[in-house]
Design a protein that fits this description.
27% helix; elongated; 5-stranded mixed β-sheet; Protocatechuate 3,4-Dioxygenase, subunit A; alpha/beta; 303 residues; 19% strand; 12 strands; binds fe (iii) ion; 8 helices; binds benzoic acid
Length: 303
């Protein structure tokens, strides 16, 4: 028998309801890429188990196919409906957890989200990222350290957030200035960063597509609590993707993408301190959101 013939599921392949997954898994036996074989085998086994559990009618199976087709049709350069689907089903957070088994000292991670689609512009420490001034002014500041507490000068902190109305610049290209509320900051000799922005607001994820229909059908709201996104990177350390969530925001206990962790919630305080106001280049008193970031050295905790 040739390799081609032996790879063929074949006539009379022995397909049966009882051993449906086994028959298909057998057809994968010549897959040269072992990881692909492993992943497909698991996919087939889980998918067949799902179908056996649900026992869909033909109409129901077609409805599922129609739904995934609609998700694909909703995707373009600025809209990733499959990411949203993964997010609202909690799969993005699970993949994040599996890939971020860090030391207890390191800052917790959370989802990247679909709006980190353009590069943040490098900005000086203290610069504002709010180019339209839409929202309540606020200083965002913190320190990046290694897990043993050593400050990390020269760390790069990428920051992005929605405006005071709850929209990202890429969602409103005709309304917001390009790269509004985005910035790439390099920490000073003490590992500190600070910038001016606006207090973020809670917002709904895009819900005018099939994922929105899924949320509506399951009586779920589409909202995320107020947050600022960060990616922190430093030489010799595992990079970290996370958010800081604003204490008291609506939806902290029901984030539609399951991204909230208690350890990431911080208050926006009002500070009355002329010296600090001068340091940050703002009037006194001022709003302040502080968030320190702890990175694991590469090689620790398996990463
Ligand atoms: C975000 O926080 O930007 C986001 C995350 C998941 C889905 C939609 C938006
Ligand atoms: Fe966001």
């Amino acid at each position: 028998m040739t390799a081609e013939e032996s790879a063929r599921p074949g006539t009379g392949s022995g397909f049966s309801e009882e051993d449906s997954a086994g028959v298909v898994v057998e057809s994968l036996r010549n897959t040269p890429d072992q990881r692909l074989k492993e992943v497909l085998t698991s996919l087939v086994e889980h998918l067949h188990a799902f179908v056996k559990d649900v026992e869909p009618s033909h109409a129901e199976w077609q409805a599922g196919i129609d739904f995934l087709t609609a998700v694909g049709h909703m995707c373009d350069d600025t809209r990733q409906e499959f990411v949203l689907l993964s997010d609202v089903l909690g799969v993005s957070m699970l993949v994040d957890a599996i890939n971020n088994r860090r030391s207890a000292a390191a800052t917790d991670t959370t989802v990247l989200g679909p709006f980190h689609m353009v590069e943040s512009p490098p900005r000086e420490l203290g610069a504002t990222i709010s180019l339209d001034g839409n929202g309540e002014p606020c200083v965002f500041a913190g320190q990046v350290t290694s897990s043993d507490g050593t400050p990390l000068p020269g760390a790069v902190v990428d920051v992005w957030q929605a405006n005071g109305a709850g929209f990202y610049d890429v969602q409103q290209p005709d309304v917001q200035p390009e790269r509004n509320l985005r910035g790439l900051f390099t920490t000073d000799e003490h590992g500190r960063f600070w910038l001016r922005t606006v207090v973020p607001r809670y917002y709904p994820i895009p819900d005018d597509g099939p994922v929105g229909q899924l949320l509506a059908a399951t009586r779920r709201h589409p909202n995320r609590p107020a947050h600022i996104h960060l990616i922190a990177e430093a030489a010799g350390h595992a990079s970290l993707t996370t958010h800081v969530f604003v204490e008291g925001s609506p939806y902290l206990d029901s984030d539609t993408v399951f991204g909230v962790k208690e350890s990431l919630i911080r208050p926006v305080t009002v500070v009355d301190d002329p010296a600090r106001a001068e340091h940050y280049g703002v009037g006194n008193p001022f709003r302040l959101l502080e968030f320190d970031v702890v990175l694991d050295p590469l090689g620790e905790a398996g990463r």
